[in-house]
């Protein structure tokens, strides 16, 4: 009889435990509801995936519950923001978490930094800029990316660079960041707490939990004079001191080249690289008043977007006839330089985001980073080599670049997985960028030639958010050249995402 009562008690206890467990699981996953759409593609349509579930959290609690659900169901998580990554960073068969609904932000006084701004993972740079600009007093970040449509977590996770040399990558503007780890715990990373862990978190490629929020140093709004000049490519690049002098007298520089821009159909030698010119852009901090009102800037951006659409349509209409590329790119170049050299003053964010993003124009982006020689000779020679290689391809009837090639120079960073990582704070890195309309024939072949040369000569590294996985043997190469940083990163990762 006693045994019977004991067994009855154990049965009741077991039922209670099961029900309590069910209740706990319901509490854990109460806010986890995947969206109905089961497919996702990146911004230029090159990547299509159909994961098990897609989530769009709008609160920290949502994010925590998604992580816990993934752990319960033995699923992995990848993340997406605006979807500008052009590789497998967001590709998964399990759970895709889109963070764009995490869009709250606050500006606060800080005892050490003066002002800081905390932005949830899905905040766009345009919203961040607007909030800081409208603050009393007006504020700004000192480093951002060219386009203002990007979301802060995507920029930070990939170590995307900033436009200003002295300010480095945007990740280096961080004071701290909060991440939901694999256990569903909220962990804060900062230099004050643990420098090594912060160096790993600042560029984490989505491999160190899920970014929830980022706190940046902000500073009083200031103005930049942005100047554009157009000079003969060969003559200017033949003297590396030109680049060094310009950089030393500027806050930042960009050197841009439109392929075959000297093309002249009526000339006996229509393809002559000696006629090609480059566009030189630089920024200098100034106390001068801005040259345009915000309304004028908005109108200018609309005009610029229409120009990008027209350029894109012109290129795509000739994509199946590559031999027409020089005529097309020369036409675009002539429209770019039609107003001649210019110099105007802008508020810092307007100068940094000098190109209005037009999402309907689909491009492939590739970017490769290498350390700058003290005399800048390798920057000049490698950009000259890019132009030379384009003409060598043209002799074979191949025209792989139909929009732009450019380079910027930024200072190094201690963020472990950044392409610009270096323990020397005075080291500089050249970010060489290539842009062609999506689907351009022979682009991958051309990039492979350029990349292999830069890998062999400078142990160069690709920009993580852009295209690079098609380069032969690139993963084994990167595993080797980044081995020390990877080992340090994995020690941190083992602690938070075992």
UniProtKB/TrEMBL annotation:
The keyword Nucleotide-binding does not apply. This is D-arabinono-1,4-lactone oxidase. Keywords: FAD, Flavoprotein, Oxidoreductase. It comes from the Eukaryota. Belongs to the oxygen-dependent FAD-linked oxidoreductase family. Its EC number is 1.1.3.37. The lineage of its organism: Eukaryota, Fungi, Fungi incertae sedis, Mucoromycota, Glomeromycotina. Pfam families: ALO, FAD_binding_4. It comes from Cetraspora pellucida. Pathway: Cofactor biosynthesis; D-erythroascorbate biosynthesis; dehydro-D-arabinono-1,4-lactone from D-arabinose: step 2/2. Residues 47-221 form the FAD-binding PCMH-type domain. GO terms for cellular component: membrane. The keyword Oxidoreductase applies. One of its GO terms (molecular function) is D-arabinono-1,4-lactone oxidase activity. Gene3D superfamilies: 3.30.465.10, 3.30.70.2520, Uridine Diphospho-n-acetylenolpyruvylglucosamine Reductase, domain 2.
